[in-house]
Design brief:
Number of strands: 12
Shape: elongated
Radius of gyration: 19 Å
Number of domains: 1
CATH class: Alpha Beta
Strand order of the largest sheet: 1-2-3-4-5-6-7
Length: 273
């Protein structure tokens, strides 16, 4: 039986208040790869005046102003910006947002106040714990919000559909390990809800992560079969796998599918599977 996503993740998404501490403002960049748009998360401890903004998104003055207006409307200021990873649809606006707010930016990578696994980020009584979740990209992190039993996942787990392993920076073994880490958090009760970088909130985190794990195993098996059926002998095995395995996928996302296929082929070659 094929993996099926939790039904609640198929609902339309427009952002808004999600938990006692998390509010989503949707960037105006919908598309095949960004779904409804990038989720910019405003995190604010009740009663606090210091907000944390996660993933200000792509360039766009109107969206950044909407974020600032929302924070000001809560009687707060932006004390810190955090990036889940460096892809433009999440991080392109970060330098401009830093100019507008005067707040520091934290992320994985040169030029930022680097984040590391297990770091605890605090602002105005709010506490976030950094969970390294590489695989989509090498710099991907998730952010646990313990008070709400929630996990902000960036592009590691989406609210709808599945994500790309962005070869060559993304790597499948690391991604599978990251899914295992998130599964352990959901199994232990630390995380019940996923606040993704795109798409709707996932109220059943454990079910979504299990869907992702089963989906990846199925895709790997399909790629193995495609190679056995002749894709391995073609001039471009990636296109051979694409035609055999991803025939039902919209051509709009074929470039992303090719990245994932390359990551799968590398993984199979490295593991001898």
């Amino acid at each position: 039986m094929s993996a099926q996503p939790p039904p609640s993740t198929r609902a339309p998404w427009a952002g808004g208040a999600v938990t006692a501490r998390a509010h989503c403002l949707l960037a105006p960049n919908p598309g095949p790869m960004t779904l409804d748009g990038t989720n910019t998360w405003v995190l604010l401890e009740p009663g606090s005046t210091d907000a944390v903004v996660v993933d200000p998104g792509p360039h766009g003055e109107a969206h950044l102003q909407a974020v600032l207006d929302h924070v000001a409307g809560r009687g707060a200021r932006v004390a810190l910006t955090v990036l889940t990873h460096a892809h433009d649809d999440h991080a392109e606006a970060a330098p401009r947002f830093a100019e507008l707010t005067g707040a520091p930016t934290r992320a994985v990578g040169t030029g930022h106040d680097d984040l590391a696994d297990g770091d605890v980020v605090r602002a105005g009584g709010l506490e976030l714990r950094v969970v390294a979740t590489p695989g989509h990209t090498s710099d991907s992190v998730s952010l646990a919000l313990p008070a709400d039993h929630a996990l902000l996942t960036g592009d590691t787990v989406l609210g709808r559909g599945t994500t790309v392993v962005a070869h060559p920076d993304g790597e499948l073994a690391a991604y599978l390990d990251s899914l295992d880490r998130i599964a352990a958090l959901t199994g232990g009760g630390a995380v019940a809800t996923i606040l993704p970088g795109h798409g709707p909130v996932v109220p059943d985190a454990a079910a979504m992560v299990e869907f992702y794990r089963v989906h990846r195993a199925e895709r790997l098996e399909q790629v193995r079969q495609a190679l056995a059926d002749g894709a391995a002998t073609e001039d471009d095995p990636v296109d051979g796998v694409l035609r055999r395995v991803y025939a039902e996928v919209s051509p709009e996302v074929w470039p992303a599918a090719r990245l994932s296929i390359r990551a799968q082929l590398d993984h199979l070659a490295a593991t001898g599977a």
